[in-house]
Amino acid sequence: MSEQKLPLPDYDELPMGSLQHRVRALEADDVRLLLEHERAHADRVPVIELLTNRLQDLEQGAQPSSGDQSRAPEAPSHTPAGSPVTPTGPAEPGRPTGHGTRSSTGQGIEHTE
What we know:
The chain is mainly α. The chain contains three helices and no strands. The radius of gyration is 27 Å and the shape is elongated.
């Protein structure tokens, strides 16, 4: 099956969040087509579950939603994560080392006399 026949353009490249949004506008036959394509190609469990659940909803009377599907978010926005800690050590000279570390005398810095 060529990608041109799929009801969603660039289906195979859509992130999950965008797929969840766009599949809501599809009729049951289109969802079945995507489900067949998914099982025959990538066979991604979360996508199969999404499509199966949407198909069940449609078969139980849910209606496709309207709206501009081209304006759906492509990917969730994430804030950068990470630690401001650097591997270079304490920022100030003479500052005590971290908890549980020992100085060159074998005693913790906070216990030196």
